[in-house]
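Much of our argument rests on the idea that a fold can be written as discrete symbols. Part of our work consisted of pairing the sequence of a single chain with a tokenised description of its backbone. The amino acid sequence and the backbone structure tokens for this protein are reproduced below.
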Amino acid sequence: MMVLIDTSVWIDFFAGRPLPHVAALESLIKKGRIFVSAELF
């Protein structure tokens, strides 16, 4: 299963915010289940 992550989640992730959706994103990254379809700025 691939997951498309909303930009707001990426913003919180790169800002290092300790939020539940950031922890979920980190878990998905470790599992290799992230699909990126656009550039991240």
Observations:
- The chain has a mean pLDDT of 86.
- The two ends are 25 Å apart (CA to CA).
